[in-house]
Amino acid sequence: MLKEQVWRDLDAFLTATFSKKDGTQLPILCTCIDSGGHHTDQVYRFTKERYERRIFAIKGKGGQEVPYIRNPSTNNRVKTPLFVLGVDAGKALVYQRLKHEPPERKGPNYCHFPLNEEAGYDEQYFRGLTSEKAVVRFRKGRSVTVWEIKDASYKRNEPLDLRNYATAALEIANPVLKGPEETETERRQRVFNMAVFSKELCSKKLNTWLAAEEAVATGQSYQIGTRMLTRADLKQIRAQMEYWAAKLAEAEAAETTGGRNRLYHFVPRDV
Question: What is the pLDDT of residues 224-256, one digit of tens each?
Fold first, then answer.
């Protein structure tokens, strides 16, 4: 049995608030405590008294047909809500997200890790995080997917278990996640990208960038507004060519639909 001081220390820690470099305060949203092992009743009692603080008792259950998250059950000695987690489904979700690499390296399901080995994110951590693999085995005449240790000489899979349970805590809490506030520049760019411009404007802008591409490709400079473009700007020039070619196609499509799409005539600066 764990000493009461351990539980008091844990309770104090779970009330802590952490600070980012920009001053943003991060309280602990949700906590999952594994009730398996030798301290089951203590975990049940601790979590039951703190259920309203989103401190939950959990128990992992293997099997490819076990759902990751389901409603908690109070069918235990202490009558505390207990979440039975489908750990195989959780591992599959964690690995799916680890493989997700969008070009901009951000967005839904992309995993961010601190570049700080002193905080524990070192080679050993990532080795443990990726220590298992899903394999197909045949049992009783049918195929089943099971998770096994990749390397028999290294069985420290605790980082994977922690990531699995932390992901479960996020799924249970189900918060409304908001991105950073949109700046005025980003808002203007978003509106600009959504607009359907007039066919004449799109054609004019496309021709301008075509002329710029032809000039800098032959070693000359080309000026648009107050900007002087050189061969070093060739990638950006071609991106603008693609942008205005797409906008021209949109304008032509709007024209053929009888004007059902609203046309905006903007005069952007230096584009």
Answer: 888 888 888 888 899 899 888 888 888 787 766
- What band does 262 get if pLDDT is binned at 50, 70 and 90? very low
d(CA 124, CA 130): 10
Q: What are phi and psi of 88, to 5 degrees?
A: -70, -40
Break the chain into its structural domains and give their ranges.
4-173, 184-256
pLDDT in tens, 149-163: 999 999 999 999 999
